[in-house]
Design goal:
Layout: H1 8-22, H2 31-53, E1 58-63, E2 69-74, H3 76-99, H4 106-125, H5 129-147, H6 154-185, H7 190-198, H8 204-221, H9 230-233, H10 239-248, H11 251-260, H12 262-265, H13 269-292, H14 296-316, H15 320-348, H16 364-378, H17 384-399, H18 402-427, H19 442-457, H20 462-470, H21 480-500, H22 507-513, H23 515-522, H24 527-600, H25 606-628
Antiparallel strand pairs: 1-2
Helix pairs in contact: 1-2, 1-4, 2-3, 2-4, 3-4, 3-10, 3-15, 3-19, 4-5, 5-6, 6-8, 8-11, 8-13, 10-15, 11-14, 11-15, 13-14, 13-18, 14-15, 14-17, 14-18, 15-16, 15-17, 15-19, 16-18, 16-19, 17-21, 18-21
């Protein structure tokens, strides 16, 4: 089975083709084709996992074009991601089969979901940067199409364009980094790049530039500061899309790429420091924004930004296992949070947490599984998020600057606070609006229950994961970080309960007393306004200048050239008609005149010819005689 691992993504591609062919005849049952494709990929991923656990690595290579080698690789990292991605995609599409009930355009929706899943699976097993970039871009296209699924809605169309254009900035940077590696090493292959760099064939300045530029692509795809602005707006898409982007694919692609290239990243201190700083800024800044967010899914979007910051800091602090451990746990509890949010919104009919309240009474399964996910992301033991967040903090404590460590510690407090703020506002207390909620259909609940299991227990696989990825157990040094993490998370939950459950502190009064800060956070630090102003002033001005240059300068030069050509062609025409054609016509006229006159000599009478002959002979005789004399 190991030899055929490359067919794992093809299972989803095959069902996507079938969806296009017969999907229009299946109605809403078209969703089950997507479930079949991703479930098949999951089964195939599980089938090859035992051999990979035993240490097997398989690589398939072929010549693509222009003698560029391409192929697929199955190792510990790709096997882990194959299982996680295919499992989450299966659950998300199963959930979507009920969530999208009654929606128009389901064939288009589930086709794009399958292509999205295929792209992430293809990226995971690619063995070179060029092929990975192709799948990377295909995911960007799918995200644009899915975020803007309700394209008739202006906000959805705008969010899709924002996501596409913002991530393109990072993609251009990433392409520059890939080309730097290729021009210096003449290869796109991961294995060959690692061998060449370890052999000292690439100077440190070039390696630093390449890793920084590639990380620029990660900043875009994984929504890190300052290219984070697209992710909160991406909530305009259907909830399954949000779960797919935030948990299974897209934003995880950037973290995966750094992990794939980690043998060279760990050799470049400047890049690691840059990653740690950007990750810390993103984690803390996003957590503050989540505190004041009012929309259910936007709170979760800001939490995704923050948790991705944790992963980036971990990788920037030599915490390879910690970063991937948190990636896996986050994938499960964040998918559960988004799908649970979708279930709540589906039952209530609003996305505003201040218009909900008391929902646990109507949605017990949704409420209970959401509680599990909230406890997990808050870092409360023994839930999965606690274990991986503890490993991240430990790695940062040992290898990063103290200010970065304490920034993440404070962020862990904020995470527990805003996540339980969300939970208390939605599921406890009394309804704050007139709604008649109901529990979601069984496909949605089934996905929630499975993800709830992983939100509780996946954290216990930390040691096994470390041994699987590196062959070493997780080293636990001291209890300071563990105790500090528990204290901060517990304090966050307690403060949140005092404000939003026991109502001991008025959030309205706090917001009023801190109005400038509250407004700044609500406006997302004015970064979106700054970008919009930049686009209006700089980009639009450049566009208008380019338009003026095109019309007045370039077109002006073309018009002058046109007039000059027309003038020259007029002169040429005159010379042609009056000189060249005149000379030719004159010669012809002269020949015609001479011919006409000569023709008159041809009378047809023998006497005239004899006279001419006699005169000619006489003339010749006279000439001869004159010459003799």
């Amino acid at each position: 089975m190991l030899e055929y691992f490359w067919i794992i993504p093809l299972a989803v591609l095959a069902t996507s083709v079938i969806t296009l062919i017969i999907g229009k005849h299946m109605g809403e049952k078209v969703a089950w084709l997507g479930v079949l494709g991703t479930a098949t990929s999951l089964l195939l991923s599980l089938a090859v996992l035992p051999e990979v656990i035993q240490g097997a690595v398989k690589e398939i290579r072929f010549t693509w074009f222009l003698n560029i080698e391409s192929g697929f690789v199955l190792d510990q990292l790709s096997a882990l991601m194959l299982v996680v991605v295919s499992l989450l995609c299966t659950l998300i599409i199963l959930y979507a089969s009920a969530y999208m009930h009654g929606e128009k355009g389901q064939l288009r929706f589930f086709y794009f979901l399958q292509i999205f899943s295929f792209s992430m699976l293809g990226l995971v097993i690619s063995d070179n940067l060029l092929q990975a970039f192709v799948f990377w871009e295909l995911m960007g296209l799918c995200s644009y199409l899915l975020i803007g699924f309700w394209f008739a809605k202006p906000s959805a169309a705008a969010a899709a364009k924002k996501a596409f254009l913002t991530t393109r900035i990072g993609d251009v940077l990433m392409l520059i980094g890939i080309l730097i590696l290729y021009t210096r090493l003449d290869t796109f292959s991961y294995r060959e790049i690692f061998q060449a760099v370890n052999s000292g064939l690439m100077a440190e300045p070039w390696l630093t530039m390449a890793t920084l530029f590639i990380f620029g692509g990660v900043v875009g795809k994984s929504a890190q500061f300052p290219l984070h602005v697209w992710l909160p707006d991406a909530m305009e898409g259907p909830t399954p899309v949000s779960a797919l982007i935030h948990a299974a694919a897209m934003v995880k692609a950037g973290i995966f790429l750094v992990a794939r290239l980690y043998p060279i990243y760990q050799l470049v201190p400047l890049t690691l420091e840059t990653m740690a700083v950007i990750g810390a800024v993103t984690a803390f800044g996003a957590a503050l924004m989540a505190i004041v967010a009012k929309e259910f899914k936007q709170i979760l979007a800001f939490s995704t930004l923050s948790q991705l910051g944790y992963m980036v800091v971990a990788l920037g602090s030599l915490g390879y296992v910690a970063g991937l451990f948190h990636l896996v746990n986050h994938a499960f509890f964040k998918a559960l949070l988004f799908l649970g949010a979708g279930s709540a919104i589906h039952g209530v009919g609003t996305n505003n947490v201040w218009e909900m309240g008391g929902l646990f009474k109507y949605q017990k399964i949704t409420g209970f599984t959401m509680l599990l996910a909230t406890l997990s992301i808050a870092g409360i033991p023994p839930f999965s998020g606690f274990w991986s967040k503890d490993e991240v903090l430990a790695a940062v404590h040992h290898h990063a600057s103290p200010w970065i460590f304490w920034t993440l510690v404070i962020t862990s407090f904020l995470t527990a606070f805003y996540m339980f703020r969300m939970y208390f506002l939605v599921f406890t207390g009394k309804p704050r609006s007139d709604y008649h909620a109901h529990e979601s259909p069984w496909p949605m609940l089934a996905a929630l229950v499975v993800l709830g299991f992983f939100a509780v227990f996946s954290g216990f696989a930390g040691n096994a994961l470390s041994i699987f990825l590196t062959g070493k157990e997780i080293a636990h040094e001291g209890s300071f970080v563990v105790i500090l993490s528990i204290i901060m998370a517990s304090a966050g939950v307690l403060l949140s309960a005092m404000v939003y459950y026991w109502n001991k502190i008025s959030p309205q009064k706090v917001a009023e007393s801190l109005k400038p800060i509250y407004t700044m956070l609500g406006r997302r630090y004015y970064i979106d306004d700054l970008y919009n102003a930049f686009c209006r002033v700089v980009v639009v001005s450049l566009a208008r200048f380019s338009d003026w240059t095109d019309r007045k300068v370039i077109d002006g030069v073309l018009h002058v050239s046109r007039d000059l050509v027309l003038l020259l062609s007029g002169v040429s025409r005159t010379l042609d008609l009056n000189v060249v054609d005149g000379a030719v016509n004159g010669v012809a006229a002269a020949a015609d005149g001479l011919g006409s006159r000569a023709r008159k000599l041809n009378t047809g009478r023998i006497q005239d010819y004899l006279v001419v002959v006699v005169l000619g002979l006489a003339s010749l005789i006279l000439l001869v005689m004159g010459g003799i004399l």
